[in-house]
Design goal:
This protein is of the alpha/beta class. It folds into two domains: 284 residues, Alpha-Beta Barrel (TIM Barrel); 95 residues, no CATH class. Helix 4 packs parallel to helix 5 and helix 7 crosses helix 9. It is globular.
Length: 399
């Protein structure tokens, strides 16, 4: 069944604006559609991998380490409660299994697939990314465990010679068992001809699509990308110059060929402005408490200061040292009788006890016994540093 979001063609100008520069030809696979909705759980099953791709963006706390995360939430193999809870918190409709390379730990992947399918049913869509060579019989095991879609990541030098690579046999095996089969690669600048050759090969064997990701700078790959001469696209993002142009050139070439297969260019802003923001919104809708408010970006606001009289909040701050009423709660403020020294806040309030606090800050002994003063909870002033001189005794400034 074709999803309604998967019908936006490349030649529509609104598609680029609506989806942050992401464009495609043909019908997107379900894995991409659910990512666009923010309904895809990102399941990082291991950081282990036998490749050393120069553009790999995996963070250093995960790369080549056998760790497991669900949407940046640490989980442990065999203890699946946290994984299932994370799925429920975002209302996940599926999961994308990634790494490292998940096929370094095929038994763990199969167990995870069975757990997800048993909990959420056969309609819970799962797809997997892999680049390493592995036993082809594992493809049958993945299908039996419930995998719906597999995405291969060939090396750059293999694009024009896929028939002689290991991935050729793996792609044919995946197609034969009924898996939706794609390749997912970075849009490396200057490699348009190689990528078009890869797309033509995939179309000839009956694969379902090619996904190109815009190349980005990250902490692990910045040295390698600079060494190969790549530069940032602008000063406001981490995108590599020329990557977007390469992706769009491949799309135009594929349109001229009138290929049957879907080809998708996934832009860097699309991942943040669409995928991540939609996932945050879905999570906020299910986790927001009565006193929290959801922002447009999907984050939660714990408190919002609004004036019912139209007065600017800036006036509240400027009057913090002289007013006797808190604009938030209406409670009385304790202020100094005259202008305080710079290290001290402009307002104080009474609290029984805490004489130790007053002693550390140099209050007179009589003041400590009588009041036990401490810094006010004024929202406009941070807690002051320790004083360099003794402050004047605080007195009440209002009724």
């Amino acid at each position: 069944m074709t999803h309604p979001l998967a019908t936006q063609p490349t030649d529509r100008p609104t598609a680029s604006e609506k989806y942050a520069g992401s464009r495609h030809v043909g019908v997107l696979p379900m894995g991409c559609v659910q990512c666009r909705e923010g309904a895809k759980l990102v399941l990082f099953v291991t950081g282990l991998c036998d490749k050393e791709c120069f553009y790999c963006p995996v963070s250093r706390d995960k790369m080549y380490r056998d760790v497991m995360f669900a949407n940046e939430r640490p989980i442990h193999p065999g203890r699946w409660d946290d994984l299932l809870d994370e799925c429920r918190l975002i209302g996940a409709k599926g999961a994308g299994i990634t790494g490292g390379d998940p096929m370094v730990v095929p038994d763990r992947v199969c167990e995870t697939l069975r757990v997800l399918k048993a909990e959420f049913g056969p309609s819970f869509h799962t797809h997997l990314y892999t680049s390493c060579a592995f036993d082809l019989d594992d493809i049958d095991r993945l299908k039996e465990a419930g995998l719906d879609e597999i995405r291969f990541h060939p090396e750059l030098r293999e694009y024009k010679d896929m028939e002689n690579s290991w991935h050729h046999a793996a792609i044919e095996r995946a197609l034969s068992v009924g898996l939706t089969t794609l390749c997912e690669i970075p849009a490396v600048p200057g490699k348009e001809d190689d990528i078009v050759a890869l797309a033509a090969y995939l179309d000839s064997v009956g694969a379902h699509g090619l996904n190109m990701n815009e190349l980005e700078f990250s902490d692990p790959n910045i040295a390698n990308l600079k060494r190969f001469g790549y530069t940032p696209r602008d000063d406001e993002s981490q995108r590599v110059a020329g990557s977007r142009e390469t992706g769009l050139a491949v799309l135009e070439a594929w349109k001229e060929r009138s290929g049957r297969m879907a080809v998708h260019f996934c832009s860097s802003p699309y991942k943040d402005a669409i995928q991540l923001m939609q996932r945050l919104r879905r999570r906020a809708e299910r986790t927001a408490r009565p006193f929290e408010e959801q922002s447009e970006e999907g984050t939660l606001l714990f408190g919002a200061v609004r004036s019912t009289s139209g007065e600017s909040p800036a006036n509240w701050r400027s009057g913090c040292g002289t007013t006797s009423r808190c604009p938030l709660s209406g409670s009385s403020w304790w202020t100094t009788a005259s202008r305080p020294p710079p290290p001290w806040p402009r307002c104080w309030r009474r609290r029984a006890g805490s004489p130790r606090w007053a002693r550390r800050r140099g209050f007179p002994r009589s003041t400590r016994r009588r009041t036990g003063l401490r810094s006010s909870a004024c929202p406009w002033w941070p807690r002051p540093p320790l004083p360099t001189s003794r402050p004047p005794a605080p007195v009440r400034a209002g009724p």
